[in-house]
Structures are given as structure tokens and as C-alpha cells.
Known about the structure:
By secondary structure, the chain is mostly helical. It has helices spanning about 10-35, 35-65, and strands spanning about 70-75, 80-85.
Amino acid sequence: MTITINRKAFTLIELLIVIGIIAILAGAVVIAISPGERLASARDATRERHVQAIEQAVFSYQVDNEGDFPETLENSLGGEICNTNL
Length: 86
């Protein structure tokens, strides 16, 4: 009498291994994509360019006015941003 074993299902170990591999791959994809970090670095780069532009404008003002620093800085609407006469 021969016993034949029909294997039609996965074992628990096989399922755990597959789930583990999928979890590792999903974690790698989330880390690789990470849109939040990419957007944050883009915003930081924009802020850095804006600060450099302001710095260059103040430097140009000082060159044009014999080294004097502006007493007040105004925004485009005419409102005062900074007053150095404190």
C-alpha cells in the first residue's frame, strides 16, 4: 500500500517567508520614494535662494550708497519690514 500526499496548500513557514519578503520590499520602496522628504528639501532650497537674493540686494544697496545700511526695509506694499533705528 502506497501513501500519496497531495500537497495543495502552502505551509505556515512558506507564508511567513513570503510576507517577510514583501514587507522588506515595501519598506525599501517607501524609503526610496519618500515624497515628504523630497518636498521638504525642495522647499529648503527655495528658501535658501530667497535668502541669497535678499542678501545680494542688501549688498548692492550698500555698494550703491557708500557702505550705508538701509535704515528701513519696506515690502512691495509699502509696509515696513525692518527698522534698524532701535
